[in-house]
Amino acid sequence: MTATVVAPVTGGPALPQKRNLVTPIPGPLSAAALERKKKYVADGVGTTLPVFVAAAGGGVILDIDGNTLIDLASGIAVVSVGNAAPAVVSRVTEQVASFTHTCFMVTPYDVYVDVCEALAQVTPGDHAKKTALFNSGAEAVENAVKIARSFTGRDAVAVFDHAYHGRTNLTMSMTAKNMPYKNGFGPFAGEVYRAPMSYPFRDGLSGPEAAARAIDVLEKQVGADNLACLAIEPIQGEGGFIVPAPGFLSALAEWCTANGIVFIADEIQSGFCRTGAWFASEAEGVVPDLITTAKGIAGGLPLAGVTGRAEIMDSVHVGGLGGTYGGNPVACAAALGSLEEMRSHDLAARAGELGALMRTRLEGLAQQFPVVADVRGRGAMMAIELCVPGTKTPDAPRAAAINAWCHAHGVVTLTCGTWGNVFRFLPPLAISDDLLNEAFDVVAEAFAATA
Ligand code: PLZ
Questions:
Q1: Ligand 1 atom at minimum distance from 76 CA
Q2: Which of the residues 166, 248, 285, 358 could staple to 382 if both were Cys, CB 3.0 to 4.6 A apart?
Q3: Mean pLDDT for the chain overall
Q4: What does the pLDDT look like over 377-388, one tens digit per residue?
């Protein structure tokens, strides 16, 4: 039996933008729903904060018990435009009533091409670009590798320490962290080679120094001539919001160009206004050969893309790329609505403002609590790394305790990082300053309460 919803179910920005707890977290209805989940949903599918959602919008999530939580996660950097954003809702509603699927490979439709045209406009570089659409980030990364292999006639793929690229066999092989992503799921795909990442807090290297270190590993252990592509997140997501030192990305991109290696920027988490620009690559003036997108692209509907130099994209034989649902019309309509929201509200600029607010709050925390060892990020993609005071020893238990405290007090926070000791903050770009400040008041209380 489904739990009865005691709250109104219409979401979007009209939802009252106020944290409001009326039961413990989770409340009785969510607790009952969780029991059903335990019975029918595979245990492998975990849940960070077990309140069941009734509605969401702006910067809040309303649960089925009537609690309103502040959202600092955006469903992992997906609903940047806010949940149930008006332009997404209206375009999806219109599309869903018109047709829901034909399969673009069978009989095409305009909204798919509209999204590809928009991606050619908003991604870095003014060269001729083409796009292929898919359903998930992992699928986009797999296809980017397929395209790079087809173009170069080479096999090897370079990735980095702390990387996250997905959970399919190839992308799981490209992902660095064993638990929970890889453990027991081998054998992994071959021809994937890992290089050291620039991690300023831990390695103290300049961007060019860190790039030279990575390039040396790849040249000596793989050979530039064997590499089809190098895939990198311009700011790493799951791996700990690691912002490489300035000059790292551009040095790698130049080395790729000089050696005929396809440079793939995985902007699945960092893209679509999140970092204060359309894409994080822009801050370094890097123009990727291929760029993978998903998450923020479509306001929560499943859509992903590979966009890149036309000559690389077109190296694949006709019929070599596709999938039943890739570029589904409803998801494409959502993407157009999402882009409309980003443009009309200038959400890139808004991400910059939110980032400045968050940086001030986080630097305040760092001053007050020595467990905060590093504050980093860009725009509305900010994080703090927690270490045993005076050391660089990761303090994951403290991160877990603070996370639990925030959840119990109505703020949806997320951790990340190879050692699980990084707090990442990914509010919807539709959140208000007041709500964001209230959320950070709770985060500060959590630090004090767990000290
Ligand atoms: N590349 C940079 O961040 C997805 C993973 C959540 P999918 N990150 C969230 C989880 O635990 O599964 C991600 C990413 C980067 C690729 C992906 C994969 O995107 O849409 O989850 O397949």
A1: 9
A2: 358
A3: 97
A4: 999 999 999 999
415 Cβ below 6 A of ligand 1 = no
Q: How far is ligand 1, taken at its centre, from the CA of residue 205, in Å?
A: 28
340 lines ligand 1 (CB under 6 A): no
Rounded mean pLDDT, 132-136: 98
- For ligand 1, is residue 267 a contact (CB within 6 Å)? no
63 lines ligand 1 (CB under 6 A): no
Residue pair 70/411 in contact by the 8 Å Cβ criterion? yes
Angle between the N-to-C axes of helices 396-408 and 433-449, in degrees from 0 to 180, rounded to the nearest 10: 130
All domains in the chain, ordered by first residue: 28-81+347-449 (3.90.1150.10), 86-344 (3.40.640.10)
Residue-wise pLDDT tens digits, 297-356: 999 999 999 999 999 999 999 999 999 999 999 999 999 999 999 999 999 999 999 999
Note the residue count of the chain.
Answer: 451
CA 132, CA 46: separation in Å to the nearest integer? 31
91, 436 contact by CB (below 8 A): no
The finding on whether 239 has its CB within 6 A of some atom of ligand 1 is no
Please report which residue ranges of 193-323 form alpha helices under DSSP H.
Answer: 200-203, 207-221, 248-258, 310-313
Ligand 1 mean position to 393 CA, how many Å? 26
Angle at 163 between CA 159 and CA 168, to 5 degrees: 85
The predicted model scores a pTM of 0.97
Task: Assess whether the previous peptide bond of 187 is cis (omega < 30° from 0).
Answer: yes
